[in-house]
Amino acid sequence: MLEAINVSIALPDRSQKSLFGRAPLLKIIQNVDLTVQRGKVVGIVGESGSGKSTIGRSLLGLYRPVTGKVMLEGKDLASLSKEELREARFKIQMIFQDSQSSLNPRRKIIDILADPFVANGRASRSDARNKALALLERVGMRPAHGDRYPHQLSGGQRQRIGIARAIALEPSYIVADEIVSGLDVSVQAQVLALLRQLRAENSLGMVFISHDLSVVRTLCDDVVVMQHGRVVEAGECTRVFNDPRNDYTKKLLRAVPLPVVEKDWLDESRRCDSEAVTELPSAVAAMR
Amino acid sequence: MNLTRYVDTAFANPKLLIGGLGLAIIAAIALAAPLLPLQDPLDQSLFAQNLPPFWLPGHDASYLLGTDSLGRDLLSRLVWGARPVLIVMVLGAALSGVVGVIVGLVSGYLGGGSDAVLSRIIEVFMAFPPMLLAIVLVAVVGPGLYAVVISIALIGWTRFARVVRAEVLVLREQDFITAAHLLGYRWFRILFQELLPNIIPMVLALLALEMGRAIVVEAILAFIGFSTSDMATWGGILADGRNYIYQAWWIMTLPIFAITLSVLTLSLLADGLRLALDPVIRR
Q1: ipTM score of complex
Q2: Could you tell me the residue ranges of all domains in chain A?
Q3: pLDDT exceeds 80 at position B7
Q4: Exposure winner among A79, A150, A238, A249, fewest CB in 10 A?
């Protein structure tokens, strides 16, 4: 179990820093409680600036809470030594929003995926290479992709690499921070399907941070709604979505855009030029 | 097909092409000096003082670019003078680069107290008049080529340190460094595998620039007699020619030409490298 108990986080506000002396602390999140069980997905939703990412990162021990604690399987992350924290982190990994900046632009994909094994003495170079190839396959990519650099892949492919790297050390928990927000809808669906599959295979506990309520609704078991650094509503996904109790949650749910479909949108007469549609694939092929 | 692509790339970046060729020519001349049919650059002839180069009246066919006040062959001295330039330029820039990059990496990556201390040290060095620093150093160590190399490094490393530190400050906030921490990478892997390759392009451009500066510093130190005295140096020719500027202007003009041209070449190379290696501009 990974849990945040009454966690508040404050970070130095550099814009208010005087020439000498310390920057004043700015409270980012206050008294947040969160529990992730293995095999469950907890969604965190809220507008930007509500502290979603901060709580996600504090679960990884990247920020030291000013009050409360983050407990990983009964151990307080803040109480661990540097070396113990290093070991503990193998159990919690992260997938990032910006797949471009989350991969070293000067390393090949195969090396990016082999490094976690080599760096932690889990495999020799050649062994690690095989493990990296296996990872590529697990996230549905071909071995040939290993020889490319991150900028030679599409956003969806890069995000798969980000996922592959996160599961390399077989963690128990994963924090996924807005990982589908930069992807188009069909690629989003593929990435989400991959996440579901991995959760089922490894009984991963997942924290899924998103501002997209429809994605959260399909993927998550529990959901936490945040506003201004506080949790305003938390509970089972179906309950929160069907019977929101907090005003802010209600507003958020009302703000989800739903498609307005005209009755006759599939009418024969209104279909676009069928010839143009058949020409499209050949036009794409010609462009290559 | 690959070859044509390289040729295309080269012509798309004429600065890199010209700069690279120029550097290759300087290096080739310096390395081939003993093989060329030249007179001994130190051989004096009191019967052939201040002879003009071949396009002026009164020249001597055996001294293509004329002679200096001691009757030494200027062409030979210019060619042999490229040797100390090459040594000083390569060693000086490399030494500045190594010291500067390491200090910059450590300072930027560690941040906090160590960064503050290292940054203040860099500032102290930058605040010191660079030539004065070099002169004091040579006065302590004694004149010679290696004193010149050390002075160049002493002056030049701050540039590398500053630029590398700034770049590391930007890079370390990127997600792939956070990921490296989460995956338990230790500091040397993060520094040398994750960060260093990302600053190499910039360091290369800085190296080319620093090589150009090294030539100027060497010339200045040679001019004031602080460089080696058992080799012909461009700065040395300059110093000799100064006394005869009215009678034999070419003695001073020729090394000035050589220095200007090589510094220009290296500036072009630095600019070309920057363009070629910057992924944003390249795309």
Answers
A1: 0.84
A2: 2-106+149-256
A3: no
A4: A79
Inter-chain contact B189–A107, Cβ cutoff 8 Å?
Answer: no
Residues β-bridged to residue B28: none
CA distance B134 to B155: 8
Chain A residues within an 8 Å CB radius of B172: none
Best of B169, B170, B182 to substitute, by most chain A Cβ atoms within 10 angstroms, is B182
- Encoded tokens for B87: 């040594």
Q: B-chain residues within 8 Å CB-CB of A96?
A: 175, 178-179
Distances, alpha carbon A273 to alpha carbons A267, A278, B16, B202, in Å: 13, 9, 51, 53
pTM of the full predicted structure?
0.81
Give the whole-angstrom CA distance, residue B82 versus residue B34: 12
At the topology level of CATH, where does B12-31+79-282 sit? MetI-like fold (1.10.3720)
Question: What's the CA gap between B81 and A85, in Å, rounded?
Answer: 59
Distance CA A30, CA A34 (A): 12
Q: How far apart are the first and last CA of chain B?
A: 20
- Tell me the CA distances in angstroms from B2 to B8, B9, B21, B175, one per residue in order: 10, 11, 20, 35
Interface size A-B, in CB pairs within 8 Å, comes to: 59
Which of B178, B183, B185 best probes binding to A when mutated, by most A CB atoms within 10 angstroms? B183
CA atoms of B17 and B136, how far apart (whole Å): 38
Rounded Cα gap, residues A156 and B123, in angstroms: 45
Judging contacts by C-beta atoms under 8 Å, the chain A residues touching residue B185 are 115, 119
Partners of B208 in the beta sheet?
none
Give the strand order in the sheet containing A173-177. Answer: A92-95, A173-177, A205-209, A41-46, A222-227, A230-236
Cβ–Cβ below 8 Å for B179 and A102: yes
Other Cβ atoms less than 10 A from the Cβ of B106: the count is 18
* Per-residue pLDDT tens over the stretch A243-253: 888 889 888 88
Homologous superfamily in CATH for domain A2-106+149-256: P-loop containing nucleotide triphosphate hydrolases (3.40.50.300)
Instruction: Report the distance separating Cα B242 and Cα B251, nearest Å.
Output: 8
Q: Which residues of A touch B171 (CB under 8 A)?
A: none
Which structure tokens are listed for A136? 């590529």
Q: How many helices (H) and strands (E) does chain A have?
A: 10, 10
The Cα B81–Cα B89 span in angstroms is 12
Averaged pLDDT, A260-266: 71
The Cα-based distances of B251 to A64, B18, B47, B222 in angstroms read 69, 27, 17, 15
Is B76 in contact with B83 (CB distance < 8 Å)? Answer: no
Q: From the CA of B283, how many Å to the nearest CA of chain A?
A: 11
3-state helix, strand, coil in chain A (%, to 5): 45, 20, 35
- Angle formed at CA A151 by CA A146 and CA A155, multiple of 5 degrees: 90
In B, which residues are within 8 Å of A103 by CB distance? 176
Please tell me which residue, A223 or B228, carries the higher pLDDT value.
A223
pLDDT tens for each residue of A117-143: 999 988 888 899 999 999 999 998 999
